[in-house]
UniProtKB/TrEMBL annotation:
Signal peptide: none annotated. It comes from Ganoderma sinense ZZ0214-1. InterPro entries: DIOX_N, IPNS-like_FE2OG_OXY, IPNS-like_sf, Oxoglu/Fe-dep_dioxygenase_dom. This is Fe2OG dioxygenase domain-containing protein. The keyword Oxidoreductase applies.
Length: 335
């Protein structure tokens, strides 16, 4: 195990994924990932299979997109509906919240401390129910192709991580893979503009409030600035930094995966705040860029608790559920 477990960052395991990919230590890698998921719901992966040059290029595309004038970005507007996560959202429009069924509370939270971030989202090109919304090609030539190439690159790594989870659970390696064809995944480019440090500290504004993700797993690439925080296990409301690690992919489990695993895997609250020891210039926190890739089972599937997560002594806690019913309910609550 020591050869694949490279250490930890504030309690989150740092795992070398290469021995899983090349088959030299699949069980050890799988166990290390599942152990971290069980304990805190997050894991860092190095040698994860996403080529560094592709990650670098996608961050460059992201910066070029967000550097466009506002009126240009709004040529690909995110629809007002929270169930259609595609296109561009301007700063302060979206409010991530853990309240799902009270529109008044959500509106009040947005007014009190808006999320000062902007985003662009895309998904499967042939998704009729949630079509992509692109800029006109002449506004940023090549952007669409770059996004979709990166979308499918991330999907390949997603499948390998799902295989590792099932190997660790002792079930068929392709058990989760058969539910994940990337038809309902989402690639998001995020930009957190430079903001006054005092306003962040006094919570007059937020970057992203505490929340959990809601699908299977999330792959996160982030720049060197930092600011991601994860709730400390057993200490609700207390958070610790999840700092950037050069070349590492952060992977976390979502609420659907926790339910699917009969609560064996944890879905943990996390947020984005002012980065620790940030270089503040003229009272301003530096901008931050990140790229999350949200992985979701096929909407058409109905799933029940995974084999290997329940027994006569520990029965399944959850009835079978439609993926579409579960996910759309959560999507609608983020706007």
């Amino acid at each position: 195990m020591s050869s694949v477990l490279l250490g930890d960052a504030h309690g989150i395991s740092v795992v070398d994924f290469k021995p899983f990919l090349d088959g030299s230590a699949k069980q050890d890698v799988a166990k290390a990932i599942l152990d971290s998921f069980k304990r805190i719901g997050f894991v860092y992966l190095v040698n994860h299979g996403i080529p560094p040059e592709k990650s670098k290029a996608m961050f460059e595309w992201s910066k070029r997109f967000f550097a466009l004038p506002e009126e240009k970005k709004l040529l690909a507007p995110h629809p007002p509906s929270g169930t259609h996560h595609r296109g561009y959202s301007a700063p302060g429009v979206e409010k991530v919240t853990q309240v799902y069924d009270n529109k008044e509370l959500i509106a009040n939270a947005r007014a009190k401390a808006p999320d000062v971030k902007e985003s662009f989202e895309c998904g499967w090109a042939e998704n009729v129910g949630m079509p992509n919304i692109w800029l006109p090609e002449d506004v940023l030539p090549g952007f669409r192709e770059a996004c979709m190439d990166f979308y499918w690159t991330c999907h390949e790594t997603e499948l390998q991580i799902l295989r590792a989870v099932t190997v660790a659970l002792g079930i068929s390696e392709d058990y989760l893979v058969k539910y994940h064809h990337a038809h309902d995944n989402q690639l998001r480019l995020l930009h957190y503009p430079s903001v006054p440090a005092k306003d962040l500290e006094e919570e007059k504004i937020t970057r992203i409030d505490a929340h959990s993700d809601f699908a299977s797993i999330t792959l996160l690439l982030q720049d060197h600035v930092g600011g991601l925080e994860v709730e400390i296990p057993g200490k609700p409301g207390e958070f610790m930094s999840a700092p950037p690690i050069d070349g590492a992919l952060i992977v976390n489990a979502g609420d659907f995966m926790m339910r699917w695993s009969n609560d064996v895997i944890k879905s943990t609250m996390h947020r984005v705040r002012a980065p620790p020891n940030a270089k503040v210039v003229d009272g301003m926190i530096p901008p931050r860029y990140s790229i999350p890739y949200f992985c979701c089972p096929e909407f058409s599937e109905v799933v029940k608790c995974l084999p290997g997560t329940f027994s006569d002594e520990n029965p399944a806690k959850y009835e079978p559920i439609s993926v579409q019913q579960y996910i759309l309910q959560r999507l609608a609550a983020t706007y």
